[in-house]
Amino acid sequence: MTDTILDPVLDKIDTDLDAATDRLLDLLRIPSISTDRAYKADCDRAADWLVADLQSMGFDAKKHATPGHPMVVAHSGGDGPKVLFYGHYDVQPVDPLNLWDRDPFDPQVEDTPKGRVIRGRGASDDKGQLMTFLEACRAWKAVHGTLPANITIFCEGEEESGSPSLIPFLQDNADILTADIALICDTGMYGDSTPAIITQLRGLLGEEVTIHGPSKDLHSGMYGGIAMNPARVLAKVIAGLHDDTGRITVPGFYDGVPELSNELAASWDDLKFDAEAFLGEVGLKLPAGEQGRRPLEMIWSRPTCEVNGMTAGYTGDGFKTVLPAEARAKISFRLVGQQDPHAIRESFRKMVTDMIPADCRVEFHSHGASAAGQMSTTHPAFAQARHALSDEWPQAAAYVGCGGSIPIAAYFKQYLDMDAMLIGFGKDDDQIHSPNEKYDLSSFHKGTRSWARILHAMTA
């Protein structure tokens, strides 16, 4: 059936794909690495680029200074529901450079066995995703002269460096950011052809543990056996974090962890997730989480404890017979339900401290703490978006969980009392945060069409 309002917008997106791709490539050329001070001017330049682009579409767009990198806020005004769209313009560092096939900030469209892709740092996370929404707005404006909703666009410049300015900015600017619902684009698809709406996110707790022993590295022949080795202590700590069934042993860790509902379990079973194929893509085949749990539970709805890195003693080429003076590990916890990250931090630190022998001492350094997020699908926008996405993609849209952590969703609820809907068009093989990051050109194109459909569905 012909839709005289939506169809011309979709046609405009189709005919404007080359120009839209060129605009994305322009933004990708700006090395807006937020965690490295050397790129501060580039982050500022990316914010200016977005302000200019949004102003060209008729948005009232401004750059807002913060103690770190600037925020960009743009308002369309107009009738219809108030919608806040969030994305981030900063990107991850590119090291190691030698693993990239080309300059990370010289993006290009490449032909691959799986189709055409946009290659470059930030292509998928999150500049490409951000631009799908902006391009949908551009097409609406070009065709109808106005947008179907009262839209605020909010672009952050510190997401990849812990968002230190975000909460104060939300608190100070609640009046210009609060809307009927927030849309977040920093997520992905379920497989290559099934669009996904994220309904739950895991929280994140990061801890760095350093165990100090002797005052200096020791000769293992002269001191081995009589001196306590911090690497041995660290190994015992790490080995003790899980029992033989894969459960985490931190006291009180499972307080607030809900069981999967029968309804959600059935919905996830319908997705026919192939754990062996999923792990096979990275050279593994056996799920290693808690025994007796579905593979999707392990990823989406169960908490985890993982060692992200550990160092001790001599790690260079050859061999050096030393007892190290210290041993260090970085450990992260993904959290679900009502788990309290601060209570878990205290329990973890007490557990580790109790395991430290008298001749050693332990030092802790925190790396953030955010609770899990649970989205209520009772807001009518969820059903509207699900229907709109199903009209665009080969498979019907699915409500899914996400193993990652996107604190902004919980912050919108906590500080602005606003529900968030997370929809993105990334794919598992986009290599975000890694060398040779890419974004499928088809995802960019169909993602833009999807946002146009969603805006239409929310306002029809």
Beta-strand residue percentage: 15-25%
Low-confidence residue ranges? none
Number of helices: 15
Give the overall pLDDT as a whole number. 96
Number of strands: 18
Helix content: 25-40%
Can you tell me the overall shape? Answer: globular
Q: CA-to-CA gap between the ends?
A: 15 Å
How does the helix and strand content classify structurally? alpha+beta
Radius of gyration: 24 Å
Major sheet: 9 strands, mixed
Question: Can you tell me about this structure?
Answer:
- The chain has 460 residues and is of the alpha+beta class.
- The chain has 15 helices and 18 strands.
- The strands form four sheets. Strands 1, 2, 3, 6, 7, 8, 15, 16 and 17 form a nine-stranded mixed sheet that branches.
- Helix 1 crosses helix 4, helix 1 packs antiparallel against helix 15 and helix 2 crosses helix 4.
- The longest helix has 19 residues.
- The protein is globular, with a radius of gyration of 24 Å.
- 42% of the residues are buried.
- The mean pLDDT is 96.
